[in-house]
């Protein structure tokens, strides 16, 4: 049976592996992003202390919620913006009331900043204060600023804080050997971020991906997979049911 490789960070990958196995697929986790604490924990604490003074907090991912959301902040008043259901679920698990959470509709074509903005854009006005809680790559990159630009254009004031770091995984020799075998076509790679794809490319210099199959959950990830040379690329919505349906259509 074809193996589905779930490349999300470890915590999310475990959930996806369980769900895909329950759907009849041989899935296993191969995280391409490791989550680590921020370099400047004092800055994070200062941001948490100031957070109640904002009108809204935007969390870029579930990983941003967990180190930021304390029990006291979970009871605070600002709106909590989530780009997708995974982030919204992390907010609920942290104790945030459902009525404070804004997220794209379950039927949205994508779960991203553009879909979120269609929901929250009307909240932003001159003087509106937004705090973006985000991660940082090993190279210091913090991700896209598209939503921040929309808020600024609407007259809002935007601040940000780093709640975690995204690092490449460390592989042993056995894992590297298995990756070489999977690259030969004996797997379907499930990608949920362009950064994870870049880590894979950096970890496997010179590797040919022409026989490999990629299942991607956003057009930007599709573009990255094409640049890497994946032989077959399947694009689907990021919801579990859509991923399973795409897998079934490409057995």
Describe the structure concisely.
By secondary structure, the protein is α/β, with parallel strands linked by helices. The protein has helices at 10-22, 41-50, 62-68, 71-74, 85-93, 113-120, 146-153, 173-183, 194-203, 219-228, 240-249, and strands at 3-6, 26-29, 34-36, 56-59, 79-81, 101-102, 129-137, 157-167, 187-191, 213-216, 232-235.
Question: Can you describe this structure?
Answer:
Strands 3-8-7-4-5-6 form a six-stranded mixed β-sheet. The protein is built from eleven helices and eleven strands. By secondary structure, the chain is of the alpha/beta class. The protein has two domains: 3-33 and 170-249, 3-Layer(aba) Sandwich (Rossmann fold), CATH 3.40.50; 36-167, Rossmann fold (3-Layer(aba) Sandwich). Strand 10, helix 10 and strand 11 form a beta-alpha-beta unit. Helix 3 runs parallel beside helix 5 and helix 9 runs parallel beside helix 10. The radius of gyration is 19 Å and the shape is globular. It is 40% helix and 21% strand.
